Amino acid sequence: MDRNELYIKGPQRMQGELLIQGSKNAALPILAATILGEGIFILHHCPKISDVEHMLELLVDAGCRAYWEGHMLIVDTRELRNYRVKGDGAGKMRSTVTLLGSILGRMHQVEIPYPGGCTIGKRPIDLHLRGLEQLGAVFEHQEHTLVGKAAILHGASVYLDFPSVGATENVLLAAVLAEGSTVIHGAAMEPEIVELASFLRKMGAKILGEGTPVISIEGVKRLHAAEYIVPSDRIVAGTYLFGALMTRGEVRLLHVPLAHLGNLPGVLEQMGAVVEAKEDWIYVRMDHQCRPIPYLVTAPFPGFPTDLQSALMAALSTASGISFIEEKIFEARFQVVEELQKMGASITSEESFALIDGDARLRGAKVEAKELRGGAALIMAALAAEGETCIQGMEYVCRGYEDINEDLKKLGIKKRCGEQGCCPKTAFTEETHVRTGNNEEVS
Ligand code: UD1
Q1: Please, what is the end-to-end C-alpha distance for the chain in angstroms?
Q2: Which of 164, 192, 401 maximizes ligand 1 atoms within 8 Å of its Cβ, making it the mutation to test the pocket?
Q3: Cβ atoms within 10 A of the Cβ of 24, count?
Q4: Considering the entire predicted model, what is its pTM?
Q5: Is 13 a residue whose pLDDT tops 70?
Q6: Which residues line ligand 1 (CB under 6 A)?
Q7: Torsion of the alpha carbons at 193, 212, 442 and 227, rounded to the nearest 10
Q8: How confident is the model at residue 201 (pLDDT cuts 50, 70, 90)?
């Protein structure tokens, strides 16, 4: 059996309790931030996903050391001395771009290959570069490489035309060690920005206003190592919640910060689910067919996240009527439509609009994950479909889902044919002898 395929025999009901893995989009910029301080960092609840593995390859390439102890990740940045990011991982994921701000901050020069990531649209980096240029960086575009230099990084007022998550992260990362004050206007308000700011603060940075559109940073001379708990992944949680809706299931997801879910609980209720939630858990039960949603638009936080749009679309294809989705963040986020159609879904899409005529009886089919979130949505659809579904391209799903096989097992999914985990084993083996050795720096 191909390890990049997953077989699911449906229909099955999702039922159970699950501790949600650490967040990919929080962990990656936090890992980039470790470069800004010299010392031994400890990250708890870090997700063991291929994107984190690729980021570690880059950090190690730059001179860091990294080890896992269970889900605790130890990163030693004391020997960092390479400002050139090469490594195989660099071209594979988008968040390589956050290394621009952190390497510039620590070393005042940087070279990275143009960033990769899922094929969900143009994904330019103009806002990142303009923001960093305002802090004093100068960039030269070579054929495959971006070269940046900043003799001095200085504070500035940075205006982002769009609240880009990555651009906000990059400016934040460069500004914490810059001389003077920086104010980011039009900043992204995503929970991952709040987490990055809290992590940087633990390293000694001075930041105010994260989680609002205006973030103020007062540059400091040095940052030190820190210990941090990565929050659980709101998108992984959301994926399983839509899975529960589609399968008339009942799930309780633990360690999920309610504040990170934005308007998701409201959307689930609108679709007819019973929802209970407290500070760090959410319970969802669905007793009947999903109700359609007349119009939903993806939007920056606290709006409905683009990363859950495919899972929502899969759920709406089983709803009792017509729904309409507008995708406003990434233009190529409807690649899953063709695959859902193979499973019997009735969806019409044009440009950024999709009309979903619900009530489809999904049936098993051979489908292909073409990007991370669409792949996860296909798995949820497979649970609700009649017969066997083969999902190819599981390597995309492993970019963000640590062990979806194991998660599904805990959520009561039994009749799977593909038992193999698909995610790569870590190259950064667990070494129990590695300890902080530098406790006063670990706050
Ligand atoms: C991050 C998340 C991704 C999520 C997205 C939106 C990570 C690793 N990835 O991606 O999962 O879907 O936020 O919540 O955290 N844009 C520009 N110029 C730029 C930067 C962005 O035009 O310089 C546009 C993009 O093309 C896109 C929109 O802004 O249309 C949003 O992008 P952005 O918020 O930057 O997303 P990412 O940081 O790439």
Answers
A1: 47
A2: 164
A3: 27
A4: 0.93
A5: yes
A6: 25, 28, 94-95, 121-128, 162, 164-167, 188, 192, 305-307, 329-330
A7: -40
A8: very high
